[in-house]
Amino acid sequence: MKKTIINIVYLFTLLLMVNCQEERLAFGSLGSPTNLEVKFDLIGKTADAPNGDGSGKVKFTATASDAISFKFVFPDGTSTSGTSGVFEKRFTKVGLNTYSVIVLASGKGGITTNTTIDVEVLSTFEDVNAVTFLTGNNASGVKWYWAQSEQDHLGVGQNSPDAKDKNGHLNYYPTYYGAKPNEKSSTCLYNSVMTFSLVGSQIKFNLDNKGQTFYNGSYQGGGQDNCYDLDTSGLKTVTLSPSESYVSMNADHATQTTGTMINISDGGFMGYFIGTSSYEILSITANRMVVRAVMGNNPALAWYHTFTTSPPGVEPPPSTDYTNLVWSDTFDVDGAPDSAKWGYDLGAGGWGNNEAQTYTNSSTNVIVQGGILKITAKKDGSGYTSTRLKTQGIYDLKYGKIEVKAKLPSGSGTWPAIWMLGSDITTNSWPACGEIDIMEHKGTTPNVIYGSLHYPDHSGGNSITKTKTIANASTEFHIYKAIWNSSSIKFYVDDVLYHDFTNSSTLPFNKKFFLLLNVAMGGDFGGAIDPLFTQSTMEVDYVKVYQ
Length: 547
Known about the structure:
Blueprint: H1 2-27, E1 34-42, E2 57-65, E3 69-73, E4 79-82, E5 86-90, E6 95-106, E7 112-123, H2 128-135, E8 142-146, E9 154-158, E10 177-178, E11 193-199, E12 202-208, E13 212-215, E14 226-229, E15 236-242, E16 260-264, E17 272-273, E18 278-284, E19 288-294, E20 301-308, E21 325-329, E22 343-345, E23 357-359, E24 366-369, E25 372-380, E26 383-386, E27 388-390, E28 400-407, E29 414-422, E30 435-440, E31 448-454, E32 464-469, E33 478-484, E34 488-493, E35 496-502, E36 513-521, H3 523-526, E37 535-546
Parallel strand pairs: 13-17, 23-26
Antiparallel strand pairs: 1-2, 2-5, 3-4, 3-6, 6-7, 8-11, 8-20, 9-10, 9-20, 11-12, 12-15, 13-14, 15-16, 16-18, 18-19, 19-20, 21-37, 22-27, 24-25, 25-26, 25-37, 27-36, 28-33, 28-37, 29-30, 29-36, 30-31, 31-32, 33-34, 34-35
């Protein structure tokens, strides 16, 4: 019996030896790769810039005998693997820094050889505002949610080198599709909570998708967007880098993008799976962010995401008011309006709206009397005359509180307006220049105040407009006000908010605008003029701008 057991053990040992020998034959030699060499080039290195061009980019090239793959491990916690041994890395810590990079060469059977090299490279790019707004500058971080109550919180447009193509589509705006408020409520999209935190000097990212991710249909589902199980737990490393997108090359790129990219390691993504980990920050504040990302499997498309720090169902905090008076006219000197503050639009031609009046600078149409500016529209023969004042070329502003105390004209066909136009209108025609109508009123519907925004795809009769009905618009003075910043434009009558418009860097409301005051007659908005109309006046007590 003892001999039988010994023979069984002997046979089992032989089988193990044969099996291991067969595996060695299948793999070939299981020796580790040899002659591992790693070279690197600093991008932009010259005799005058020995540490690179400031981009922080380094190109690594690894070679080894009998290697089938290479892995680079970087001190920021990121890593990359591939078979070519060639990889370009951007180091983002500002200044001249030395980084220790571990390089592993893997051979057959997974046996590795490794080496460590030190790289000294200069990086000059930083975006302090982006870091602060993203993370709150602390390790607990800031939670970001889909701004699901906003129009276009998820959208797509073309990714092309033309800021505006022959069809009028913009390369910095979701002109193909924009989700309606709460449109995706029946999906898992709005479950995502994204946290950006600052651990030491390193930005970290976590996506809590509650177990499911909303996939673009080209990646899952055969064309139909849907939710699929996906584990997104764990912290990922984020680096910021300068944008090299088409938007960043637009002539007006400074008003369309921050120029900063968010790059998330290890395939991380911001809530909606479109096959990319890099997002361009178009605009960001302490409570709102708009990003743009080129689709991973279709570079002709760019997706737009809007996020807020307010959880679903919670209103964002109110905008900070502006209290520093920077420009005003209180109309204290009788006579013509102050030429150091106001100019004129003159003439007729309908002004793009089939208006009936001819604008003049005559004292019969515009005068300052007793501390009040008076703009009078008058019947003149078979036509009408009036005045349009403007600060174009004299004064303009970007962001602030604009406050005007005025009493409006009456009579069917009258169309008074307190408004602003983009200062670049001479080179960027309407509506691309943008228009902010702080107050419009038409005599055909007395006491109804209009606050409107005009811009591409939303102009003329398709403007973004809300109204407020008040009492005695033409017999009493009221205060018409707009508070305008990078995240919103709010419209008020007598300090009552009635229109809260969401601004973003994709819109033309992040540059300088000039002011206009006028009374038009008739036209597309003013409507039919009362045949018995003789004259009526808009009276303005003051115009004030705070920043």
